[in-house]
């Protein structure tokens, strides 16, 4: 199991599971959007498409665990995410 599975469990673990853990939002519906290739890399256009798809699918919250060596607000992914936030 990977990091996404771990995060999904924190969010939506169901009562009565074998580990005895309960997620913070067990009634939540989760969506998953593949953004990394088999080699473990991705591109801005793929990330932006995934964020837009989650928004278009009606997600109430969108989260990702991405690392980057840049945190500029003018980066394409940051601009796309800011537009989604501005839309509500």
Percentage of residues in DSSP E strands: under 5%
The major pleated sheet works out as:
none
Low-confidence stretches: none
Q: Spell the H/E element sequence.
A: HHH
Structural write-up:
With 88 residues, the protein is mainly α. Helices cover 40% and strands 0% of the residues. The protein is built from 3 helices and no strands. The radius of gyration is 15 Å and the shape is globular. The model has no long low-confidence stretch (mean pLDDT 91).
How do the helices and strands line up, and which of them pair or pack?
Blueprint lengths: L2 H10 L31 H13 L19 H12 L1
Helix pairs in contact: 2-3
Spell out the key features of this protein.
single chain, 88 residues, mainly alpha, 3 helices, 0% strand
Task: Give the gist of this structure.
This protein is mainly α. Helix content is 40%, strand content 0%.
């Amino acid at each position: 199991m990977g990091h996404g599975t771990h995060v999904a469990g924190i969010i939506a673990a169901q009562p009565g599971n074998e580990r005895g853990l309960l997620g913070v939002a067990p009634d939540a519906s989760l969506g998953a959007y593949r953004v990394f290739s088999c080699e473990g890399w991705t591109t801005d256009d793929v990330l932006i498409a995934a964020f837009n798809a989650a928004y278009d699918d009606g997600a109430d919250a969108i989260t990702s665990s991405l690392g980057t060596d840049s945190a500029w607000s003018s980066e394409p992914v940051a601009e796309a995410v800011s537009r989604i936030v501005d839309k509500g």
